[in-house]
Design brief:
Blueprint: E1 4-8, H1 14-21, H2 32-35, H3 40-52, E2 57-63, E3 66-77, E4 82-89, H4 99-114, E5 119-125, H5 129-137, E6 141-152, E7 155-165, E8 185-196, E9 201-206, E10 213-214, E11 217-219, H6 226-238, E12 244-255, E13 258-271, E14 283-289, H7 291-296, H8 307-314
Length: about 325
């Protein structure tokens, strides 16, 4: 008999997470960045970012006071009202005992009835039959099938995207479809368009499942100017020392408890083709793309492909929209 309860993930829970992610049986169907091993240093930095990111909610699953796994929602989007489901039962002696089903009840109730999401989606390895059966049991249906989408230990594997709509969405009150802006706190984040000598744009990919290539940058800390913050983030993420130019494009997005204001800057230096990019531990890959490649690459964050930004990037005019 189990007595499941759930606690929001804290830094004190990280040893459990590290143990599970370093177990080859547990992480078999997870992304390559955890199958290569993880440690306390990486996870403390990961938690620093997680703790500031209101688009993710991860819960520790406990049987009484014993930690046995984790479940959560990632990429929570309160405008489009959807999120990505994540589940991991880390203690193998709890496998095949219905823990996943009980945890699914909890997270679906949280997502649909507390966050008022209209849709919860997930991605699963095509060979992970037990997980697929679990998701089908809860009404998830296949939305897409992606061939050779993720690199696993035995080579590239297929992924299935599945989703479930809120069964009560037709009964949802109108206020559930509106975002209460009064509780949002604004956080400023900065990013940079860094070009090399051939005019290609530098993009980085974070160490996380389903990570997409995006522009270098990060959040502005206390007592930093936006340009100081961006210079620091670029140095931490790439090892480059770059002179920041002027703002090119501004975007805004709302998540749980936080409103993000993003500023994309130009840079005044072009990177030598022989220069070395030194990635942080939070990133696992970088690429240089021209504008046509950026638009056609399915692994590039869609927000970079928005019409206004791509028109500015592809313009023959100097990239210099605003001045501060």
């Amino acid at each position: 008999m189990t007595n499941l309860n759930y606690q929001k993930l804290t830094r004190e829970h990280l040893p459990h997470r590290i143990k599970w992610l370093n177990d080859a049986e547990v992480n078999r169907y997870l992304g390559h960045q955890v199958r290569n091993g993880t440690d306390e240093e990486f996870h403390n930095k990961w938690f620093d970012e997680y703790d500031k990111d209101e688009s993710r909610e991860i819960f520790l699953i406990l049987d009484d006071d014993k930690a046995i796994g984790q479940i959560g929602l990632l990429d929570i989007n309160l405008y489009d009202k959807n999120a990505c489901l994540y589940i991991l039962i880390g203690e193998k002696d709890y496998w095949h005992k219905g823990i996943g089903s009980e945890a699914m009840d909890f997270i679906l109730d949280h997502g649909f009835n507390k966050l008022h999401l209209r849709k919860i989606w997930l991605e699963v390895h095509a060979k992970n039959e037990n997980a697929i059966k679990l998701y089908e049991k809860f009404g998830f249906v296949q939305e897409g099938y992606f061939k050779d989408n993720v690199l696993y230990n035995d080579g590239f594997g297929d992924e299935i995207r599945m989703a479930k709509l809120n069964p009560n969405q037709n009964e949802m009150k109108p206020e559930a479809n509106r975002i209460n802006m009064s509780y949002l706190q604004t956080q400023v984040t900065t990013q940079a368009v860094i070009l090399n000598e051939k005019g290609r744009i530098l993009l980085l990919k974070r160490n996380k499942p389903g990570g997409l290539f995006t522009l270098p940058g990060g959040t502005v800390e206390k007592e930093e100017s936006v340009k100081q913050a961006l210079q620091r983030e670029i140095a931490e993420e790439t090892g480059l020392e770059i002179e920041i130019g002027n703002p090119l494009w501004i975007w805004q997005s709302d998540h749980i408890g936080k409103s993000l204001l993003g500023i994309v800057f130009t840079t005044n230096d072009k990177v030598d083709l022989n220069g070395k990019i030194v990635l942080s531990k939070e990133h696992d890959e970088y690429i240089w793309l021209n504008i046509d490649e950026l638009l056609s690459d399915g692994k590039v964050d869609p927000y970079i492909k928005k019409d206004e930004l791509t028109k500015l990037l592809s313009s023959k005019q100097p990239i210099n929209k605003y001045e501060i």
